[in-house]
Amino acid sequence: MRLDWEAADQDGRSAARRRATARIGRAALEITLADSDTRLLWPYREIRQTQGHYAGEQVRLERGGELSEALLVSDAAFLSALREAAPETRFHDPARRRFRVGLILVAGLAAIAAGGAIYLFALPAVASMAAQHVPIQWEHRLGDAIVQHLAPESARCTDAARQARIDAIAAAVLKPVQTGYTFRIAVADSSTINAVAAPGGAIVVFRGLLDRTESAEELAGVLAHEFQHVLHRHATRMIFQHASAGILMAAVVGDVSAVVGFGLEGARMLGELSMSRQAEAQADRDGMQMLHDAGIDTAGMVTFFEKLAALSGDPGRGRYLRSHPAPQERLAALRALSAQWPRPAGRLMPDYAWNDLKSMCGAATPRESPAR
Amino acid sequence: MADTCPKCGATGVGSDRCPQCGVVITLYQASLEKLRRGPPAPVRRAAMAPTAVPPRSIAAAAPARPSGSEGHRRARFMGSGAALFGIHVVNVLLTLLTLGVYFFWAKVKVRAYVLSETDFDGDRFAYHGTGREMLVGFAKAAVFFFIPITLLSMVPELTGASLRVRYAANLVGYVLASVFVPMAMIGARRYRLSRTSWRGIRFSLRASTWDFVRLWSRSTFFVACTLGLYYPIYIMRRQDFLTRHMWFGSQRFGFDGRGRDLFWPFLGMIVLFPFTLGLSWFGFAAKKARYFASHTTFGAARFRSRVRALPLAWLTISNLLGLVLTLGLAWPWVSVRSLRFAYANLSLDGPLSLEAITQQAQTVTATGEGLAGFLDADLGLT
Predict the structure, then answer these.
(1) Inter-chain CB proximity B323 and A38 less than 8 Å
(2) pLDDT tens across A138-173, in order?
(3) Distance CA A260, CA A237 (A)
(4) SS3 state of residue A247
(5) Rg of chain B (C-alpha set)
(6) In Å, how far is B198's CA from the nearest CA of chain A?
(7) pLDDT tens digits for range A257-267
(8) Are the C-beta atoms of A14 and B67 separated by less than 8 Å?
(9) Are strands A39-43 and A47-51 parallel, antiparallel or unpaired?
């Protein structure tokens, strides 16, 4: 075994580099400085290795405090010799490097598994737990801020008589429910065919959706669905999930932040959309149950969602890009639910001409009344 | 008695207390000496004394290279993207398993690898930071900066305080945040330099945080007032500040750039921007890199950069594409590529006398680094 090794010594005081020879002794390294004949004795237990764990790195041994002396040996075989002479020391073993590829592969697979498990199970669980503990009052204010952004006062349709009709429908749907939420329904003057439930009970119905309803029962179906989003705190949960998924991504990506964020944002959105598909199915199911409990004809909800499905076009493509469940699956589930109950005799607002409600935003759309 | 303060570098210090930073010099040197010796019990050291004779005289040790040799020195990266990828994979796993706590140790591993594979003039750099101190720095930054600012911006909104309270809270939060950005920039740089060594000698940044906060806030104000035209003057002043307060051991870096010199290139870049689809930015970035390097001195030596616009543009764009297409998996190779590019284009020309340089390490905490982690104010190491 080779005992004498070419080395360089740094005393931690000056930037001079001194050539040295390191001899592997029984309990200590004996370092002889080439130019001054000074001998230093480094007991193994006082030495720590800070470099030389990877191919191409020099071996760096340090001794002392933070501003330590250091000994540099460029040949990694020095480590093997050191291990042989002093097996009790815990310096890196270069022989173990050949297992590294395998270890990294295993670590990679384990990281994917751990990341997947956290993403699929831990994050949703944490998010829904956290969402359950947010005070309703906070949700309320957050929701108001979101609604302000989605439908500012100026873009709202405010017609007291017709708003009272909508509120009456909402009250009818909510009749059997005990809840701490106060629901507020606003109609926004936009052709979007959509309705949005913000946290805390603020709901925005867009004119485009209102225009396509044909009866109070259809609107009741939409409202029931949105109420369920609020009651299940779906939006609040989504906010938590979004934030924690961001932290997970940061952990995986490590040092690079902004650049990669772009590429990963897409992946994150896809995941969230699928999460929201589950939420939609839940809101459909429980919303319909809610209608039934309130004694409202559930056929209206089915009819309206059939219309929506027809509007969204080809059901087969882009399934994963749509936030709502595939229309056909969704309709089948709704029809099956609705069919198990007998249709109630009474109707909501039997004497009201429904088209009157659609002029809430001043003028009906051209499609509905070509005369204008 | 030292006539240069070992902590802030102020010259002409007559007494034991530095008039600039107020440090008691003998105490400071004693604490440095303690750092040097480290924890091993003095009894054991005494037993070693007959053989372990640390050479006091530097002159006695002949240098490996002739003193003050003329030269053309550059850094080289000796590592590989594959090794960095291996480190990264293990880091990701441990970070996930520890629910994020390992993140700081992971950062240390990457920095240590990059520095120890960086060779300059035949010697490697070394990184001395620890995950523990970074975790503490992060926790401090969270408690004193991040949590108060977040609360200031969120709580009045959620609890429905009056409009006046909300505006006041927002204003306070804004002022705090605008002080923390420069604090983070300088704190992170100070920390990283203090944990980086070459030939056993630490780098340091010896500057007053408040001076930099003042420089930054004044400049940001001017940049806003002049619709961005002040920007080239700001970056020049920032570079001047950061470079002139940077030390390697007892040797200070110098900077002799002039405020106006980047103004016309900047204006030219702005004018050409729409016609070159933004590529003129790389022209300016390359010009800036060359200018900064050629006005940075270290003793009698001077840096020189050969960065050109087109290679820089190609590097940046291809790196970005690589990262996006691989969902970030390529970042170890991207980092290595960028390092190699930077090193290949930068050299230190002229005589370099290292023998006279002595250790003058600074005590620095990692709070600024933690703060920078929150704000993403990463200034890089070089």
Answers:
(1) no
(2) 888 888 887 887 788 888 888 888 999 999 999 999
(3) 25
(4) helix
(5) 23
(6) 8
(7) 443 444 455 55
(8) no
(9) unpaired
